[in-house]
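Chapter summary example.
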Amino acid sequence: MGLLDRLLDLVKRHETPGLTADTAGLEIVAEAFDPVVADSAVLAGSPAWVSTAPAVLRHHLLLPPDRLAEAASILAQDGYDLREQSVSGGLTRVHAVRVQVLDALHCAQERSRMAGLAQRLGGDALGWDALQPEAPA
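The structure predicted for these 137 residues follows.
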């Protein structure tokens, strides 16, 4: 992620101070767990996703327990929060989460980045999903 992208992400985050990963009423609006399907196709095929609104981007990772602190430190540099979910087969399932306005390019870049990070740490990147507040009825 380049300097300009980071600055734009910071600006976008400040435009939406109310949305956090813990905001009540979030629902999954897009999910990408099949590496064959392009992120652009995932977003284009999601009728619930609001392209102009911020979303919680949540990457699902499997990491060795002894590498979680290292992963958290690396991810924090780009505004991600690492949250432990469960332990299975010697690996810890974690979510790397942050709030941003989604677009296909950044989703693809972040998916690739997460795959590289997980591989370097001896784990695996399973995919990502995006959450936005439930649409008003």
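To summarize the output: The helical segments are 3-15, 39-44, 68-76, 104-120.
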